[in-house]
Amino acid sequence: MTSRVLRAAAAGAALAVAATAFAACSSGPETTPDDVITIFAPQGTDVDLEENAFTKVLEEKFDVELDFETTTWDGAAAAEKRQISLASGDYPDAYMLIPWVDQFSAEELVKLGGQGVIVPLDDLIGEDTPHLTAAFEKEPGFKELATAPDGKIWGIPAWNDCYHCSYPSKLWMNSAWLDTLGLEQPTTPDELRTVLEAFKNEDPNGNGQADEIPLSAAGGSSLLSYLMNPFVYTAEMYSNAEGVTPAALGAVDGTVTLQPTRDEWREAISYVASLYEDGLIDEGAFTQNGEALNAKGNSADGVILGSVAVMHPWFVTNDHEDGRYTQYDAVPPLTGPAGSDTFWSAGGAGAAPGATFVITNRSSEAKQQKLMQILDYMVSYEGHLQGEFGVEGVNWARPEAGEVALDETLEPSFKTLTPPEGEGLNNSWGPIAQFFSDAEFRNSQVTDTDVYTPEGYERRLFEATQLYEGHESDERFPYWEVAVTGETATELATIQTNVENFVVQASAEFVTGVRDIDSDEDWAEFQQNLTDLGAERYVEIYQEAWDAAQ
């Protein structure tokens, strides 16, 4: 797979779905009239898909009525509701999902296709889908992602060439605090410790209270990846029910390696644990969600966050008189024992093998054609702008003379607008409609040249990400090039879920002192736990599949 696919193919290992989950599907569901199409989709808190402005556009343009079965943007809840929907036998005509919430994995597509629950799209793609066909030709990797391990196209994924998403393990540090204390951005793990100690002990917010939080995070994934990479290649570890990424794996001299079995990994965790023990890492870093982190970033008591490990600085808003919105800048990868070129690049977070769009066997031939026309419209430039952003003149506008694109070598093509508070919220489908955001589309967006304004936020992310590009590790395991199918995939699904989620849990336990990383006994127990969960077989399956793919 090409480097462009690597950037666009973030996390998506093929996992099997137990056949029993879909046992109720075999009898075939009843369908609705051809002019009524039912769709399962995630729905944001400010969106009513039934009354949405873009829904109305599609209904009028394609002479259909769209009825929705909705779930939330919470990944665990969405996954559960989707499985229940499929297992009930009374599922909709189509599923339109969000990649980072709960899309179909490649192996799920093969499983559902083999059961006849979803229909192949190969014969529906062609002259009647000119925009999708053109997108496949423009970005061959897009078609690669859409093609399942059995060679068929069972669904369409989202192609989102998101540059800042490609390097999610960033550290954002309060530059105003550094200036106050006369410090520079750290360049090594030891220098980072010195800065965090100063944040904790030297009252950088100047309120006379010891209320500063030197380093925080939400969920701990970016935190561990950023802090551990100077010692050993460490991908972000996602704690989710499916364990969809083999994040704990690396590739050392052509050999698939479980990174937590290495001495370098132990050294890295020991470093992080020492920061935690000294009170330099927020106690909630591994357990709090984004809402809790946001509350700290926007504390009414003043600025209390010294640094935060997240993809981008969403944890502060721009409505504070103290100017905290402008204070956080990205810190480049640290140079540790393994150097600075051990950093992890994930690829675009909105693109993964599998599908966000599938058509079920409930859909008649007439509905299948309508659904493909709707999809094709969302791939088109006009449909994309309306579907993802909303109404022209309210949510987005054409560029004006003198305005600059994010990539200044491109002609600017559109700019997003901020409607008055409470307006324009139900005008688009957002990421549900985001099927083809290639680099040209994303980077031709008008962006303010002042990165510390809300209008310049995307440029702020773009420039920050440039600090991380070029520091990729040679030990990245290219699992996106590996296909595991059939009974082996079913076996892998269970082992991968168990191993990956255990690594996430144990990592947090080592950092917080529940397990003692400096104890040989605790370390040996951890290694035995991995073995008991099937770690050796886990590595063996991926090694065999990788060897076969080369």
From TrEMBL:
Sorted UniProt keywords: Signal
Domain of life: Bacteria
Signal peptide: 1-23
Transmembrane spans: none
InterPro entries: Bact_solute-bd_prot1
Residues in coiled coil: none
Protein name: ABC transporter substrate-binding protein
Species lineage: Bacteria, Bacillati, Actinomycetota, Actinomycetes, Glycomycetales
